[in-house]
Amino acid sequence: MQKALAHTGLRLGAMAHELIARPDEREQLLSHLSRFGLTTLQLGTPLLEKVFAERERTVEWSTPLQAAGRAIIALGGYRNLVAPNETQRRANTAFLQRCLELAPNYGTEIVATETGTCNRENDWGPSPENQGTEAWESLCTTLRELLPVAERHGTILAIEGHVNHVINTPERLARLLAQFPTPHLQVVLDPYNYVGKDQLLHIEQVVAAFLQQFKDRFVLAHLKDVCQQGAESDTPAFGQGVFPQQLYLDFVRKERPDLPLILEHVAVDQLPGVLEEVLVTWNLVLGKGKETDESIHESKN
């Protein structure tokens, strides 16, 4: 598996919190990464909060990863920026400010987050208020607090949209970037999140347009999928949905080979199967057909 992945040239990584549960499981994390040939990490919640709680051990936590060539490519701060409860919204903003301040201590400049929803029960649930003026102003107010912190610390706030959130379409993402013309606000390449059930009939056109519109703004990328009911229902692991993965990987190969690709929604025991799907898709992108040689399947042995 490692040799096959290395030959692709893809910078594949994982969500740290999907591989381990506690900060003291660093050796186990390194073992998983080495076993599957993964080279990058997104350090996200809820593991991130636990790591922050041991701030005095930051170097102890991150140095072994860097020494092993396993870079933390981003902190996944993921907070609801428009939470209707003001106390919660302020707490969310404060946490992301801390992420933007501390990111360089972990060897990265990128802090990823969703934009959030006005849904009062679920931070990933829809709300009719999300596309209203009040929600937009709330998002902008929060960004006015976060972006100066990013500028002071030389970090980047990377926005990840979602069909259930305030930033639910490429059009609204473009509007946000135009309103805040700073290099400290960039985009997570996660096209899956923008494919709602209404876009499924034209999924390839939707995805291709998104990739080209923001190709110079992406700072990290995710690998997952979209279920048959659209992203508002589920975004499962790579190869378990209807997303045009060949189109996506071909874009990465031709336009943004510098981007790390972080596997999402994948447990450790799912990694062999998901990585095999990635390799098969990559071979199709290269026009090699659905190869089944030993280098692809050795993870099952």
From TrEMBL:
Keyword tags: Isomerase
GO molecular function: isomerase activity
Keyword Nucleotide-binding annotated: no
Pfam families reported in the protein's UniProt record: AP_endonuc_2
Residue span(s) of domain Xylose isomerase-like TIM barrel: 35-267
Keyword field contains Isomerase: yes
Name of the protein in question: Xylose isomerase
Lineage: Bacteria, Bacillati, Chloroflexota, Ktedonobacteria, Ktedonobacterales
